Amino acid sequence: MKISQILDKIDENQLFVPAFQREYVWKRDDAKNLMMSLIHEYPTGTMLTWETQTPPELKGKWQYTEKQGAVKLILDGQQRITTLYMLIRGELPPYYKPAEILNDTRNLYMNLETLEFQYYKQTLMANNPIWINITDVFKGKIKMWDLYKLLESDASLVDKSKLDLIASNFAKLEKIPSIDFLEQQIPVKASLKEAIDIFYIVNASGVNLTDAELALAQISGYWPTAREKFKAKLAELKANGFDFKLDFIVYVLLGVLYHEGKNMKKLHGGENLEKIKFAWNLLDTKVLDHVLNILRTHAHVEHSKEINSVYALIPIIVYTYKKHLKKESFGDEEIKKIIKWYYYSQIRQRYISQLQQKLDKDNNIAANSEQPFDELLNIIKAERPLEITPDEFVGTDIRNALYSLMTCYFKSRGAVCFNTGVGIKKPMGKKYSLEWDHIFPYSVLKKNGYNRNNRIKYSLAQEITNRAIITQLANRSKLDKDAGEYLKTVWAKNPSALELQLIPMNEELWRLENFELFLQKRRELLAQHLNDYLNSFSETKDGVGTITIDELIQEGESPELEMKTSFHWNYDENTVDDEYEYAIMRTIAAFANTKGGTLVLGVDDDGEVIGMAKDFSSIGGDREEFSLYLRNLIDEQFGENFCKDNLKIEFFVINDLDICRIEVSGSKGPVFIPRFSDKSQESLFIRTGTSSSELKVSEVITYIEENFNNSDK
Known about the structure:
29 helices, alpha+beta
């Protein structure tokens, strides 16, 4: 389809963009590169369309009715199409609101001599007809004949030998709307979910979608108003200082619904609709505000700019969501543990790498552990020491989480601006917004060798230990005063102001020649105070924490752990095998008779995850139906109270494959199991090494006496 036809179909309400599509996110460089490809006739990507009579909700004002019949939707390529629409039409396409255009890529100019594309620069383009606004060409406001006559009449404008080249380049630009844009089509018979799945697969060029954005597209497919609801909440939070992205909301939903951080595909299916609606209502009306108010009042975090990793909020949200579901209130000690973990998650950069894997682990702990924030803090502690050392401040600038912690600590102490005396905790008015001020002015340090020519000394000049938190008004009045003179003035006016922001009170350190000694002393003060501050929140219980299913599998089989490829599916024979079931029952009995153990189903002896799809399908169900089948079989073998008293059955997903963990506790009495070959005879199995062994008849009585007839049992 030609580019001009695509744009005409948009104007004629024949080509639409579904509401689940994201905003226009291309930047000016993307637009320039697209036009460069078109002018040189390079490949420019494709457009993926879907013609359907049952479209999802559409972007823009147009409302679909059945009388309209089939409509065509742009599923992939809409960033390119939107760019072309804006550059050729000079207007926003009808399917986007102005707020959804994150970057306005219009007003692009081209050099007719070099085919270079640039956005308007007055010094380069003013009164220079070689640079033309490409939209004016497409709209017919600039004609080649008029331009040719102008250039020909004034020799100062261009070398006459280049007129033919300019005319040729002008023609190349005019030709762009007639270029064919390769169209790929999704089959008409495809369902909405199938269409989005195909969109997921082909989205491999342009500004790629993240897993969270693709999950949001699926959510919007079965809940058309989801995106607008999420954006409305984000706008509300932004107005209160907390600026988050849509990705963040998707991670939150995955966390509260599935206690995970990685498998976004769990949100793709329409079966999630009611669960997501319920979860979002609770998040929107209660949980998100609750968590941010905890941060404001207890951690002194008043703006998202003071948060180095917003993903640390997700385990807190998961935990708070669980509390709201149970209608439980927060205790003071609980909040202290949350804040302590939050601070350490920032300064110890918990989510700087392997974000999804770590959220998988942390969300599960937040949802299921009895002491989640002790456990989460111990994980950080195992990776890095918690104690802050003075050396950590060396060369550390305001982008580091230590600066945010320092700011929050100063707020907790009631610190004030040096000049105005206004408290730095949420001052009102633009003139009183907070700024990070150099105590020793950079302009002075620069003249004395602390500049970009010396990387180490420059980092010292920018170090957070050379920063004070003051208001914008104070910063403008301070200018470049000598540090000693400035600090003496502050001390005379407000003696406590310096101490509250941990300024060393030895006046000799305020002299320029002692700048590095000043930094050293302030590092020591900050390390000491921040450690005391963090330790004041709560005592962390050491050793708290449960081993994850991944870690369990990596340990390999042992007397307390056995792994089975399946419950009753024989992969060699490709059929159900009763002997496999018996082997499972035998292992459970052996663990019960030998102080307990763990059985993992869906994993082979080498720790490779096989999954349980065959086991599930063999009984015609899913994990819930399989769990019921398993419990009924165990009740049949061992009695109806055995499962309740001795077993804990849980399911997990690893690499999109289901596995089952069966925790078996030691039994108070011997557990017998009928023999597979003769149900009239019973056997007693115990664990010996990594296998389950049957005791001889002569050994049974002795084993029972030694293990079950003790009064301590």
